[in-house]
Write a structure and sequence with these properties.
The chain is built from nine helices and twelve strands. The protein has 234 residues and is an alpha/beta fold. It has one domain: Metallo-beta-lactamase, Chain A (4-Layer Sandwich), CATH 3.60.15. Strands 1-2-5-6-7-8 form a six-stranded mixed sheet, with helices on one face. It has a four-stranded mixed sheet with strand order 9-10-11-12, covered by helices on one side. A two-stranded antiparallel ribbon has the order 3-4. Strand 5 and strand 6 form a beta hairpin. The longest helix has 11 residues. The chain starts with a strand and ends with a helix.
């Protein structure tokens, strides 16, 4: 189930879930830190098979929710790994006050992964914020919903009827890779988000992995210019 991406970096595809009537694929990332401990981003459904593969990589240390809608499986992961630290932006910690989160993530990486990741706090939207990351050793940018990149094959299989007709105008398809339209429109203050994007692009990422859609194996900087063209332009 785990797919190796680079040295000490893996991803796993989770189930397709329903989000307000729209089927969404899920994806998580596992990184082994220099001390051997594991950092898991946006955990997907924890099956026995996935747990066995993850456990073989090293001890669990960090479970990361990048935004307030990427929390679906945190409860089961926390139950399986109670020793792991839970992390997320303040919007996630408020929504999941039942879980013992560490201090809210912002622009400065915690000491636990400083030097391994760059991170940037995309804010300025009245709807939702998100913490984006770059895994520095592999030059891999990591986004949850700030970039969605659905293929025609996925849309034909899962988004039936009128749903398939709105994906392209929304810009959440291969060739555009935008955030969903309603979220883009909610960024009434764009300067903070532009500053966050500048932090990410300053690392010159070559690979881009997002939670939903086709991830980008190379050419990451060009992809980000397209994916965030709505934010870059005035």
């Amino acid at each position: 189930m785990l797919e190796p991406v680079d040295t000490d970096l893996w991803l796993a595809e989770g189930p397709v879930v329903d989000f307000h009537g729209f089927p969404y694929p899920t994806r998580m990332i596992v990184v082994r830190l220099p001390d051997g401990a594991l950092w898991v981003w946006s955990p997907v459904a924890l099956t026995p098979e996935l747990k066995t593969e993850v456990d073989a990589l090293g001890p669990m240390a960090h479970l990361v929710s990048p935004n307030k809608i990427h929390h679906l499986y945190l409860t089961e992961w926390h139950a399986a790994y109670p020793e792991a630290k839970l992390w997320g932006p303040a919007s996630t910690t408020r929504k999941r006050s039942d879980l013992p989160f560490h201090p809210a993530l912002e622009d400065t990486p915690p000491a636990d992964w400083q030097g391994v990741f760059e991170q940037a706090w995309f804010r300025g939207s009245f709807f939702m914020d998100e913490i984006a990351f770059v895994h520095r050793p592999s030059r891999t940018a990591i986004f949850a919903d700030l970039s969605e990149n659905f293929s025609d094959d996925f849309l034909k299989r899962y988004w039936k009827g009128w749903k398939s007709l709105i994906a392209k105008p929304w810009g959440i398809v291969v060739g555009k890779g935008h955030a969903p339209l309603e979220w883009r429109l909610s960024f009434t203050r764009r300067a903070p988000a532009r500053a966050a994007l500048a932090r990410i692009t300053a690392t010159h990422p070559d690979r881009v992995i997002m939670a939903h859609g086709e991830w980008v194996k190379t050419g990451g900087e060009a992809f980000l210019r397209q994916a965030f063209s709505w934010l870059i332009r005035d």
